[in-house]
Amino acid sequence: MTAVFTARPRPISNGMKFISGDRVFVVLVVVIVLLGFAIFSSASLGLLARESSSVSKDILFQAGLGLGLGFLALLIARAIPLSWFKVCAPYIYAGTLLLTALVFVPGIGLHAGGATRWIGLGFTTVQPTEFMKIGFVLVLAWWLAPRARQLANPRKGLYPFIGIVALPSILLIAQPNTSTMILLLVTGAMMFFSAGAPWRDFGILALIAVITLVAVVYARPHVAQRIKTFINPSENALTSGYQIQQSLIAIGSGGLLGRGFGQSVEKFNYLPEPEGDSIFAVFAEETGFVGASILLALFIALVARGIVIAGNSRDLFGGLVALGFSSIIILQAFINMGSMLGIIPLTGLPLPFISHGGTALMASLIMCGLILNVAAHKKA
C-alpha cells in the first residue's frame, strides 16, 4: 500500500452512478442494514416491559435518522469527488473535534450514565464521537499519503502521528469513552504501519498505549471494575457482573438454532440495554449459533471486500481511507460481540448497523459511502 498508483479511474456507468464502484459491497451493506433493522425492531420489544420506554419512537428514529438520512448521507459521500475529501480532510477533522468538544458546554452537552457524550437537540440526541471517527480516518490518510517514504524519520513520522492521535484521545478520556479511544488507537496504528512506518515504532507506540491505559484504569474506577468483572464475572453477579451474566445466559439458551426470531426471553426485564450494547446477545438467543455465525460472516465478508477495495485503490490516500473505515467497522463489531461473549471486558461500543443509535448508523453508512467512493476510483 506504500506505492502511489497513477492509473486513471474507469468510467462510471450511467445506470449505477451513485452506488457504482463495487456492487458486491453495496449488496453486503444493504443486507446487513436491513437485517440489522429487523434485529433492532425485535430487540426493542423488550422495552415494552419498561415503563418509561417508547418502542415506536425508538424504531421511528432508528428508521428515520439512521436509515433514511444515513442512506442519503451514503449517496452524498459516494457522489462527492474523492479529491474534495482529500483537500478538506484537515477541516473535516477540525470540525468533528470541535463538535465533539461541544458536549462539555453547559446547556448543549448531556450527561448520562456517568459520561458526557451527547448533544441535545430537543427531539433527539447526537453523539458527535461517531463523526469524529470519520474525521480521524480522513485526516490520517491525508497526512500519511504524501509522507509514505518519510515515515522512517521520527520527526516526520512518529512524532506528528502521536500528535494527531492525541487530540481525539484527550477528548475521549475526558468524556470518558475509553473503548472508542482504543478503537481509534488501533485503527490509527493499522493505517500508520500500512503506509510504510517502520516496525521499530511499534514498540514505542505499544509502550505509550500501555502507560495510557494503566493511567486510565487508575483514574477511572469504572474501567478497573470492568476489568475485575472480566477476570471474575461471577464475583458480583447482581451488580457489575450482571450484564455479562445475563448476556451469557441469553447466548447459551439460544443453542444451535435459537428460540425463534422475536422470541427472546432475556430482552424482557433481564438483559440491560437489549436494543443497544446487548443486542448481539438478543440476536444469538433468537437465532442460535447458526444465526450468530451468519451475522459474523456478513461482517467479515463486508470488511474483506473493503480491504480488496483498499488494495485496488489508484492512490495511497484512497487505499488508506478504505482500510481505515473497514478497520473501524470490523474492530467495533468484534469488540461488541467479544464483550457479550465474555472474551474481552464490557465496553460501550455499539454493534455497527444494528445497535440503537441513529448517529452511529448514519456514521457507519457514511463510511460505506466513502469506501464506495474509493472503489469507483480504482486502478485499471
Structure, briefly:
The chain is mostly helical. It has twelve helices and three strands.
What can you tell me about this protein's structure?
- It is a single chain.
- The chain is 62% helix and 3% strand.
- With 380 residues, it is mostly helical.
- It has one domain.
- Strands 1-2-3 form a three-stranded antiparallel β-sheet, with no helix packed on it.
- Helix 1 packs antiparallel against helix 2 (55-79), helix 4 runs antiparallel to helix 11 (316-340) and helix 9 (242-254) packs across helix 10 (279-311).
- Mean pLDDT is 85; it is low at 1-16.
Key descriptive features of the protein:
single chain, mainly alpha, three-stranded antiparallel β-sheet, disordered N terminus
H/E element sequence:
HHHEEEHHHHHHHHH
Number of domains: 1
Q: Cα-atom Rg, whole angstroms?
A: 21 Å
| pLDDT < 50 stretches | 1-16
Enumerate how many helices there are, as a single number.
Answer: 12
Biggest sheet descriptor: 3 strands, antiparallel
- Helicity, as a percent range: 55-70%
Give the overall shape, derived from the CA principal axes. globular
Strand adjacency order, main sheet: 1-2-3
> Could you give the count of β-strands?
3
- The proportion of residues in beta strands is under 5%
